[in-house]
Amino acid sequence: MQLGMIGLGRMGGNMARRLEQGGHEVFTYDPKVESRTAGSLEELVSQLEAPRAVWLMIPAGEITESSFQELLGLAAPGDAIVDGGNSNFRDSQRRHAEATARGVHFVDVGVSGGVWGLEVGYCLMAGGEAEAVARLEPLLTTLAPDDGYAHVGASGAGHFVKMVHNGIEYGLMQAYAEGFEVMRASEFGLDLHEIAGIWRYGSVVRSWLLELLHAAFEHGGSDLEGIRGFVEDSGEGRWTIAEAIAEDVPVPVITAALFARFASRQDESYAAQITAALRQEFGGHPVHSE
User: What is the pLDDT of residues 158-168, one digit of tens each?
Assistant: First the structure.
């Protein structure tokens, strides 16, 4: 099957290679990468046979919106636009409506797998009309490992499920982080690399994330040399919490994990300064000066 892939970063580039290895014909465009088949979106669309399929694998937000609008202007009825980035599911619902009005299919696909996807495959969560998703299945089944793909629902469902997936990921990573910090601070002089290693086998907390932590200790030692404790977030955790609030669903673990990321970016916590000052004022407790 033919596909136009837009975005050849850590995910898009490897996805294009996996598709090519699976026998698909992939045309590519990325203004930041020289190894591509097209120099513009217009040229990319012209290289594909109708009905076309074009996959956006670029950061959510303005760049996805502008690329989608340009593609929509170039697309013909029957063509399909796929967004595999981490777009907000409500944006995907809107884009689906805009595409449908022009006779163009729009499919939102949540993609998980990171830099390991080329080798082991990508977990794919597709949202959209059954007809459009079915047409793309040769691509989806090539990208995914066995049992790693599903058409999860109507337009927006793919990105909604991926949003919640990433919110859960926040909580899992924070739990590992806190547990290993408790062990590092203990009196026992524990070998955290060894413990991460044995927990991979038979333990109820074994997971791929734990395997990655073991690998991180191998690369940087238990002190994780060269890695600063500054943790970004790309938006999905915030969106998950916002939807939970709208649905009256408590998500304390995901919320705490997001706030921990916020705290990681502070060189000095003003809130902690306030607390220290108050303790000194009401109880005469000593403070640490700068």
Answer: 999 999 999 99
Spatial neighbors of 152 by CB under 8 A, at least 6 apart, are 125, 126, 127, 158, 161
pLDDT tens per residue, range 16-69? 999 999 999 999 999 998 878 999 999 999 999 999 999 999 999 999 999 999
Alpha helices in 49-191 (DSSP H): 62-74, 89-101, 117-120, 130-143, 157-184
Q: What is the layout of strands, in order, in the sheet containing 105-112? A: 25-29, 2-6, 53-56, 80-83, 105-112, 123-127, 149-153
Which residues have a catalytic role annotated?
A: 162, 169
Residue with token string 């943790």? 231
Which residues neighbour 115 within 8 Å (Cβ) at sequence distance 6 or greater?
Answer: 10, 14
What span, in angstroms and rounded, lies between the C-alpha atoms of 235 and 177? Answer: 20
Q: Are 80 and 107 in contact (CB under 8 A)?
A: yes
Per-residue pLDDT tens for 182-198?
Answer: 999 999 999 999 999 99
- CA 127, CA 1: separation in Å to the nearest integer? 20
Measured in whole angstroms, the distance separating CA 56 from the mean position of its chain's CA atoms is 14
Q: Are 25 and 53 within 8 A, CB to CB?
A: no
Closest Cα to residue 118, out of 9, 29, 214, 197?
Answer: 9
Which residues, including other chains, have CB under 8 Å from residue 239's CB and lie 6 or more apart? 88, 89, 163, 167
- How does strand 123-127 pair with strand 105-112? antiparallel
